[in-house]
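Protein in question passed on here:
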Amino acid sequence: MNRDTRIAWINRLLLPLLNIITAFAVTALVFWLIDVNPIEAAQVLLYGAFGYEEGIGYTIYYATNFIFTGLAVAVAFHAGLFNIGGEGQAYIGGLGAGLAILMLDPSLGAWVFIPASIIGALLFGGLWALIPAYLQAYRGSHIVITTIMFNFLAASLMVYIMVHVLRETGQMTPQSELFPTSAWMPFVHDVAAGFGYNIEASPLNMSVLLALVCAVLVWFFLWHTRWGYAIRATGKNGSAAVYSGIKPKRIIIVAMCISGALAGLVSVNELVGYQHRLIMDFHLGYGFGGIAVALMGRKHPIGIIVAAVLFGILYQGGAELAFEMSGISRDIVVVMQGLVILFCGALEYMYRPWLIRTLAPVKQEAANQAAAEVGA
């Protein structure tokens, strides 16, 4: 194995693994400082995530949302953009999915409702990302600032719409009327029952297949199409991309619209698949969590799926921790997420110099090359 291959394995596998281990080690220290046994807490967390069928369903259900937002962040990352607007894009995507269902004839079947909700989520999420993309490409506004601002704008817009426009008649709760049952994304336990298998009920629905399909499509798009090459080239070096005939402004628009559309699909899992109505704040945590998922997954769909499952474990296992252990609240999940973001983001390359010196030293490679030349 030559030095370049070893460095590639260090970047893709060893670095993320060591960063995760470090984040968990610091989490264990936090548990110890608040008088909680870290080993016992880990056992409770893992049992909550994988110890019973309902827990597994919840874990994969949460992971589905993180796959969507992780892919959204990754597409923007490959174009050299830091999309922090996943929260707002998911929220507005929910508006698109909900309107697509509520505006259609309730007597229509699932073959109309479900594709319409998916298209509505994609369209509204992408359009919400289009405005910051335009401001970045043609007005020089920084994408980080504008996407953060648009998160707040999305929240304010949704409050107004849910309270004054779409609120169910005769209800004080700011939520829409229930979607027609034919518009519900099928639950996995219902589908399994149709094939003769009994699975405990959970929110897990067939949106998980949509997430996996999106992961495959993003992989194919980024690494096997001309547009994907242009996005990656722009992200690597925008100035060099110009000399190859690529138009960075156009790439910014395309990448951000795709990113926003993917984030909008969170609403398909949450609203069409589980809540079955438009509600407030269904998106909270998934947009920002997607940043950590993309960083952990090295911006590759396979890595993103693995990282999304890990965050699903933290969400479901953290809920079990808060329920089973006194002195621990659901906020511990936020702490664990923050530590993962810290070590996989800000301190991403902390171990890299040591790993390269140990596993891919320059002297060893030079000696091997000299020996190969002598042997030849």
Summary: The chain has a mean pLDDT of 90. The longest helix spans residues 3-33. Residues 67-297 form one domain.
